[in-house]
Specification:
heterodimer, A: 421 residues, alpha/beta, nine-stranded mixed β-sheet, six-stranded mixed β-sheet, 16 helices, globular, B: 247 residues, 33% helix, 30% strand
Chain lengths: 421, 247
């Protein structure tokens, strides 16, 4: 009864929130006040359980890839939309999907989970599998030190009832995996050939005062190479070619993690070729290279969250960029890390916007990169930038933090901020 | 003439834009027509000689402790360099390990390198906040505080900044209860405002370069167009932050 009420009210709030174009966590927050056990009651009975995907970077992309991989095997998948990775955001997505009686039509849930919320969410929903992407320098204003993130992910991984899948090229995760002594832990191993293509070097957060580790975690599959958005994986001596959702080693690792999860979870019955085909047809998660059409122009949207994601974004950009728009506001409370990034792939910045525009402008002068315009107001910036694109015939590239991405998408008229449609 | 900088432990203490400070110093010198070079020390061998300035950034506690262990055998050399007047700029945990001591949460006291007249006591409370205040010449100074220890200045050392908002040398008491941020005394300058302190606060960069120029014996005047542009942007970044915090 309480569940039905929570779902009904949540659904109503959701419709209102959508019409206003925002607030994707609000329906879930309200529904959870009415029924605190909402998540347990709806997700707790799925036949293949709940999969948590967490880590500093690549959560959204990996979540989408895990969902696509499992769907290709004939499973009905429930997933939370990218960005909505806190308990209330997940509850919002649940409310949107379930029937009024509280029944979720799915075999498995694949949830993107914020690093800090894995352990908070675990008591509500026990994960069957936990997939960990990496531990990189991220949101130090929130997490303070990478060591704390390690502990958070470790405690989330400890709750997995069936197993844990890790990125074996991140030494922090190898360390974490080796410590999970009575759990099934599998890794995606990454060849040194593939790693050598990462011009900025390994991105794992630094670990000081810790002993070296010997990585003998069982290998589910190996990433042999990545070339222009095409990855070769090795599975028990066989090579599997996969078209990635984008260029760059990070996409190959995210894809490999999805395949490793599929193999670990479904065992013999997992069909790699079907999974590879599904992944090749998968669309980019929004903010990770999606191209938005606006007033006759095209703008590719790339999200920057932290130094690692910014580096990955820059490395995977095709040509030297001459029409870049950078947008950042105080949703990035401490933008210090922008000084840690090699910006040499950017030749010229057409526009900077958001309340952090002046920070970026200062940074770019020290990097010797010309800046054409600084317009803190997003709306004016979008109009000016679009005019420039229309006149020059160029395709735009927006490099933005999450909050500005949402704000700019809203101005562009994208009302469904959850799914990006 | 080339200005010789030493960067201490960029790997262990380079978590969050620390390198932006050296970039700033080098660029400003270059804009003023002065060449410079950076040497790195991470514990191997002895400290280089003929230095004009020394910089150390901030990082994780584990990184700082590793750096301190590697630095300890050379602590005397650093102290002598400081006594000979070489300007030091230290940020965050880099400052703490160059101080006289650090009391850890488990009750252990670590001896610092003894360059800076300050001592610190680690706390289990973390300050994480945008902060702003003014230096002794009235320049608005801003940055991000992200730390967990109480730093106490010793003797005649003065705070670098008088804070109006955020957190400074205390991680537990905000600006209205403890307004001291950083340290300044002769050739020593330290701050806890995160990462790229200098590009955001070019008055501090030029003040530090002034001390370097004085000691090494060259003239530093900043009249370049590049600096003018960068400083105007930085000034707007600082004003934006102050307006937002002051309400």
């Amino acid at each position: 009864m309480r569940l039905s009420l929570a779902v009904l009210i949540g659904k109503i709030v959701r419709v209102i929130a959508k019409l206003r174009g925002g607030g994707s966590a609000i329906p879930g927050r309200i529904a959870m006040v009415i029924e605190p056990d909402l998540l347990k009651k709806t997700l707790g009975s799925l036949s293949h359980g709940v999969i948590f995907v967490s880590g500093s970077n690549g959560k959204s992309t990996t979540t989408a890839l895990v969902a696509g991989t499992l769907e290709s095997q004939g499973l009905k998948v429930f997933s939370n939309p990218s960005g909505g990775n806190m308990p209330q955001g997940i509850a919002s997505a649940v409310v949107g999907e379930i029937s009024i009686t509280g029944k979720l039509n799915a075999d498995v849930a694949v949830l993107e989970v914020d690093e800090a919320y894995g352990e908070i969410l675990a008591p509500f929903v026990t994960p069957s599998w936990v997939v960990l992407t990496n531990i990189q320098i991220d949101q130090l204003n929130r997490f303070f030190e990478p060591d704390r993130v390690y502990k958070m992910l470790e405690s989330a991984a400890k709750t997995a009832s069936r197993g844990v899948v890790i990125n074996g090229s991140d030494v922090n995760l190898v360390d974490l995996g080796l410590g999970l002594t009575n759990k099934n832990v599998y890794q995606l191993s990454v060849s040194s050939k593939a790693l050598s293509k990462w011009p900025t070097g390994a991105l794992a957060a630094p670990r000081f005062g810790k002993a070296d580790v010997v990585n003998n975690i069982p290998v589910s599959l190996s990433l042999a190479d990545e070339q222009d958005g095409q990855a070769s994986f090795e599975i028990e001596g066989q090579i599997l070619e996969v078209q990635l959702p984008g260029r760059g080693l990070h996409f190959a690792i995210d894809t490999g993690l999805a395949l490793a999860l599929g193999r670990s979870m479904l065992g013999e019955s997992f069909n790699e070729n079907q999974a590879a085909k599904a992944i090749s047809n998968q669309e980019t998660v929004y903010g990770r290279g999606e191209v938005a059409a606006y007033r006759g122009t095209e703008i590719q949207i790339l999200m920057m969250k932290n130094p690692s994601s910014m580096r990955a974004t820059l490395v995977s950009m095709e040509d030297p960029q001459t029409a870049v728009w950078i947008a950042m506001d105080e949703g990035t409370p401490d933008p210090s890390w922008i000084y840690d990034i090699d910006l040499s792939r950017i030749e010229r910045v057409r526009m900077i916007s958001g309340s952090r525009a002046w920070h970026w402008a200062t940074r770019l002068v020290y990097a010797g990169i010309p800046v054409d315009e600084v317009i803190p107001d997003s709306k004016t910036a979008l109009a000016t930038y679009t005019n420039f694109l229309a006149e020059s015939g160029k395709r735009g590239t927006l490099i933005t933090n999450y909050e500005q991405m949402m704000a700019i998408r809203r101005i562009m008229g994208y009302l469904d901020l959850e799914s990006g449609k | 003439m080339k200005v010789k900088f030493l960067h201490l432990f960029p790997n262990q203490l380079g978590l969050n834009g620390e390198g932006g400070n050296l970039t700033c110093l080098i660029q400003r010198l270059s804009w003023a027509g002065i060449e410079s070079e950076v040497q790195i020390f991470e514990g191997e061998g002895s400290l280089p000689s003929g230095l004009d300035a020394i910089f150390i950034g901030s990082g994780t506690l584990a990184g700082a402790i590793e750096a301190l262990n590697l630095l300890s055998p050379r602590a005397k050399d650093l102290e002598e360099m400081s006594e000979s007047g070489i300007p030091f700029l230290a940020l965050g945990l880099g400052w703490e390990i160059l101080g006289s001591s650090i009391l850890l949460l488990d009750g252990t006291t670590l001896d610092g390198a003894g360059v800076f007249p300050s001592r610190s006591v680690r706390t289990n409370v973390r300050a994480s906040a945008e902060s702003y205040g003014f230096d002794e010449f009235g320049n608005l100074t801003t940055g991000y505080a992200n730390h967990s220890s109480e730093i106490e200045l010793i003797g005649d050392a003065e705070p670098l900044i008088e804070l109006k908002g955020g957190y400074g040398n205390s991680s537990t008491k905000p600006a209205n209860l403890r307004s001291d941020e950083g340290l300044v005394r002769g050739n020593l300058m330290a701050a806890r405002l995160n990462g790229p302190l200098l590009p955001l606060n070019p008055h501090l960069a030029d003040r530090f370069l002034g001390v370097v120029a004085n000691r090494t014996g060259f003239t530093y005047e900043q009249r370049s167009e590049e600096a003018h542009e960068a400083d105007e942007f930085a000034s707007k970044a600082r004003s934006e932050l102050r307006q937002r915090l002051a309400g």
